Fold this protein.
Amino acid sequence: GAVVSQHPSWVICKSGTSVKIECRSLDFQATTMFWYRQFPKQSLMLMATSNEGSKATYEQGVEKDKFLINHASLTLSTLTVTSAHPEDSSFYICSARDGTSFNEQFFGPGTRLTVL
Amino acid sequence: AQSVTQPDIHITVSEGASLELRCNYSYGATPYLFWYVQSPGQGLQLLLKYFSGDTLVQGIKGFEAEFKRSQSSFNLRKPSVHWSDAAEYFCAVGRGSTLGRLYFGRGTQLTVWP
């Protein structure tokens, strides 16, 4: 149980285009989902917290207009990288919390974004 | 603000040897502490967590960690490492008031020699 999937697992796009990444909780309802960014050989940086049906809460320094997050249902959250540039290339990881296990999150396998 | 320090970027041990991965945190109150393992192509997997109570926490795969408030540490240990333990290990801290937001250390890459 407690499986989180991400789609796509990798994506390559041209500079200036937008990319959408999906995060799904497959066997539980995720009241809260989190989005992280991970640079090579570095830590996971929390980007934003999204609660189903409400606006995402962004961490300091994360551009809201660049990284659009939508949590339309209890099993799906999406991250859209708008007008992507090479510096947005990174590994994006989502996690989901089912609300029944305090503070425990289940992580997706990640999405590798490369912007040319 | 809370922060997590993992001082060892890369550790190499021989199979069967003992292991200790260090983690120090900076936070005023008692934090919620976690250790995760990340293998290529897989999501982070929770090894163990500490919220309160017994400061020695047992986790999966034979791992344990000890919370030491006086040292602001939460070191991960395993008495005998297996080759399959080779992975990236992350220490993370959270607190109740932030409803699950986690802050991670930079990770420690573990290499296991046969």
Summary: Chain A touches chain B at residues 4, 32, 34, 36, 41-46, 49, 93, 95, 97, 102-110 (CB under 8 Å).
